[in-house]
Design goal:
This is FAD-dependent monooxygenase. This protein has one domain: 3-Layer(bba) Sandwich (FAD/NAD(P)-binding domain), CATH 3.50.50.60. The protein is an alpha+beta fold. A hairpin with a 4-residue loop joins strand 9 and strand 10. It has ten helices and 19 strands. The protein is globular.
């Protein structure tokens, strides 16, 4: 960490003192701010200057469908409900996932199915747009007590004997007992703390876009492990609409991004037409491609610093749980802080050590599962193809194992 040990900051331009300073402007940062403030802690939320790239409303006033969506599980649902955000979502734009069909590769591809009825739940997950979620969080933050949002860019972290300080480019200083890094996969906070990472590029990009489907999707999410073309997921949106998340090899991604969405719909038809009929791009057309990588930090804490969300772990999106892991981080952090001894501050090293231990197993399991599945289904060897398709079919016939898997995925 770029630090300077100091017992006092009276000589410095301290713009705000709070219990917690959070660096980040995504859903995890905002949810952590709400949760900590509702637990009675003062919070400073440091966000970068806004960029003028918000989507414009389509003709007729209808808001375009966001291509960035999340499959939020029950852990996320419970947390967002507790901070009074779930009820503030535009529920007309939220789709429950009642079932999931996983398809293997090849002519005799395996199949694995999950459904909410078998999981004794009302829904397996909920598909929520990034903009819908963040608008609800922003509305809650406007009325939150003990939360102040500061716009600026951090340039240095100074760790003192009784606090941690974040210096901004304009010379101001934010002082807190605990600094929370919620600033994404390329976390500045993590880098300032000299926390090393294990990095593995998947040489894939996550291509996201939205389509109208000819046949009703019945709130079923479909996923195809195709080997040569990567991993394709079509997630239900309200009405006869679906959201694409295609983890495509870089070469294929280059080709796809050079084509129209109509041509992409034709490509998808090879896999989706039987289930969903013809696909038609939603208007206005929008498509994005996001580089995919596994990022495993060597630690998720440092003196008076904790990491949450993608700053603490980035996994392959094939299971759709990157955001859910982040929400589980927030839950664990809130629980750990609430359970600390009366004499311990929220930035105490023993408190942060308990948070790190609480997250170790869950994060490691998800990293191993997603990375292992990506390697398994990326192997273009016929014996491996036969074994993995057999494994899918076998797992589909083991209800006890299926229930355990889906319970873990749901965050139960």
């Amino acid at each position: 960490m770029s630090t300077q040990t100091t017992s006092s900051a009276h000589h410095r331009n301290v713009a705000r003192r709070s219990d917690v300073c959070i660096v980040g402007n995504g859903a995890i940062a905002k949810t952590a701010a709400l949760g900590l403030s509702q637990a009675g802690h003062s919070v400073t939320l440091l966000v970068p200057p806004a960029r003028p790239d918000a989507p414009e409303a389509a003709a007729g006033g209808e808001k375009p469908w966001d291509v960035r969506v999340y499959a939020l599980n029950h852990t996320a649902h419970t947390l967002l409900s507790s901070v009074k955000v779930w009820g503030a979502l535009d529920m007309a734009r939220v789709a429950p996932v009642d079932a999931m069909d996983v398809h293997g590769d090849g002519a005799q591809g395996g199949h694995l199915g999950f459904d909410a009825f078998g999981a004794h739940a009302g829904a397996l997950a909920w598909i929520v747009e990034d903009s819908n979620l963040n608008q609800a969080l922003d509305a809650a933050l406007r009325f939150a007590q003990n939360v102040e949002t500061v716009t600026g860019r951090a340039c240095r972290i100074v760790n003192g004997s009784d606090n941690v300080e974040v210096e901004l480019e304009d010379g101001k200083v934010l002082a807190a007992q605990l600094l929370l890094g919620a600033d994404g996969r390329d976390s500045w906070v993590r880098g300032q703390c000299d926390i090393g990472i294990d990095y593995r590029s998947y040489h894939q990009r996550g291509i996201v876009a939205n389509f109208a489907c000819e046949k009703p999707h019945h709130n079923v999410a479909h996923q195809w492990f195709t080997c040569k073309d990567g991993i394709i997921a079509l997630l239900p949106l309200p009405g006869d609409k679906v959201s694409l998340v295609w983890s495509a090899p870089d070469t294929l991604a280059d080709t796809i991004m050079g084509e129209s969405l109509g041509e992409l719909a034709i490509r998808l038809g090879e896999y989706s037409e039987e289930k969903l009929g013809l696909l038609k791009p939603l208007q206005p057309e929008d498509v994005k491609a996001i580089p995919l990588a596994l990022v495993r930090p060597h630690a998720i804490t440092a003196p008076r610093v904790a990491l949450v969300g993608d700053a603490a772990h980035a996994v392959h999106p094939l299971a759709g749980h990157g955001m859910n892991l982040g929400f589980a981080d927030v839950v664990a952090l809130l629980d750990t802080i609430a359970a600390r001894d009366a004499h311990q501050g929220i930035g105490d090293e023993r408190v942060l050590a308990r948070y790190a231990r609480a997250r170790k197993e869950d994060v490691l399991l998800m990293q191993l599962a997603t990375d292992g599945l990506e390697r398994l289904f990326g192997a273009n060897l016929e014996p491996v193809r036969v074994v993995r398709n057999f494994g899918l079919n076998l797992l589909d016939k083991l209800p006890v194992v299926k229930r355990r898997l889906i319970a873990h995925a749901m965050g139960r």
